[in-house]
What does this fold into?
Amino acid sequence: MFDGPDVVVILNAIRERPDDGHRWLALASWLWDNDRDDEAVAVQVFWPNLRDSVLIEGHSVHATLRYVARYARVFGHKAREIERRAEVTPPTD
It folds into this structure.
């Protein structure tokens, strides 16, 4: 599922500090670079939910990412929809 020393370093960093968004975004970047676009956009947009899965619900990082991979197409579609809305929604003051 995740091969190579680069991603192992990223996954270990997430395990150490799952509350650090930069680590999740580094994983999203690795996923983009490895042509796993649906998973990448899902991690990029939903990383706070993934963090909560690890910290609050007690799931392992591996189990959480396996779930993302299993439903990548659905999550990716929804994440892109959220990104599109954010781009066209004017800020409110």
Remarks:
- Residues 5-88 form one domain.
